[in-house]
């Protein structure tokens, strides 16, 4: 008896509704269990430092998918600063010389409501 099923071929950043019914002796139940889910956007790719100096980083990355991504959430650790951007590059200023920074980029869908992508990260000192 199947208790789970993988649905393939879905588009990223899309809302899908599924309804599951029981089936007993080829008779389907009247009431099903409905679930609505959002598919994640494709993660950013090729995150890299283009240029840097003692107090700033110029970051660049590419879209994981061409259409659905509406923006990105960039987090710089330390100090835990988060910046929302719509472009695929960012200049981060106000950094301290000699400090190791971890930068992560998360893709967001155009509707800004659905789930976020898996983060992509780099470290730079």
Automatic annotation (TrEMBL):
Keywords recorded for this protein, A-Z: Repeat
InterPro entries in UniProt: ECM_Regulatory_Proteins, FN3_dom, FN3_sf, Ig-like_fold
Query: Which top-rank group of organisms is this from?
Result: Eukaryota
- Residues in Fibronectin type-III domain copies: 43-125
Q: Does the keyword Repeat apply?
A: yes
User: What PANTHER family does the database record attribute to this sequence?
Assistant: FIBRONECTIN TYPE-III DOMAIN-CONTAINING PROTEIN (PTHR46708:SF2), TENASCIN (PTHR46708)
Protein name, please? Answer: Fibronectin type-III domain-containing protein
